[in-house]
Amino acid sequence: NEPLPDRIDAFITRDWPQSIPGRKAMYQAGFLLTRRDETMVQDVSDVVLEGNYTSGYQAANGWSSAGYGGYVGSMAMQGLMAYFYDMVRPNTAVELNQCRYNHMGLDVRYNHHPNFMKNRKQLHGKCRNNSPDDVCEDCMHTDMSMIYNVHYTYCRKPWNCQAKGYPGGRKDTRGDSIDTDAVDIDHCLMLVHRWHEMRTDFENKLYELTGDELIKTSQKGKYREDIFMGHCDGDGGRSYRLLKADDATWKRVQELYTS
């Protein structure tokens, strides 16, 4: 309910799923829409070149010891841009709904790690965005019709061919499963399936244009065809089927996008 800035220089999403109770919230580096402004580029460069960054997990960490540290990406876009638009150029950025923009399908309540311990019982189940009314959309179940763009991260990349879920994201080896503590497995597979639908649409149109039979060999995978649509031979990235086509076919791709 905060008023919009008189001049909007950036649209951002916060990295609420990574936030620590009582600490500054980072920006999510997968999405940053900014006004073209050479002075902004120079000002960001000045912050980096100054190098005033305090490492560690204490409250006075990060850029200019202002509390923008201790997270994944604190020294890079996650922490740098949060510090820049919060402290260097305050009241010029607008936070968008992270369930609709830069959608990751992540739990935005204090239910599990990261950065939340079960002994903080007063916060368990509360919104990570510190809403006084405890209002936050459940990004793990946002309807596809309400999502503008997807950031494939915790739901894994579509070419990872990952269809199994397990708490913590590890059943046998590190990263062998989608972390069901952080996301809903069915929602993730729906997002991944949408990507494979788009790849299939591209393949089919390219085949109609060229008649290149090599394209069809890329769609013969049998693993979870309901999700991966023939693009995977098994679970894991090594089972992904790359899109194949003749050199002459690749040269004609642009024809699909020109009238």
TrEMBL record:
Gene3D superfamilies per record: Spore Coat Polysaccharide Biosynthesis Protein SpsA, Chain A
UniProt cross-references to InterPro entries, sorted A to Z: Nucleotide-diphossugar_trans
Highest taxon of source: Eukaryota
Protein name per its UniProtKB record: Uncharacterized protein
Species name: Craspedostauros australis
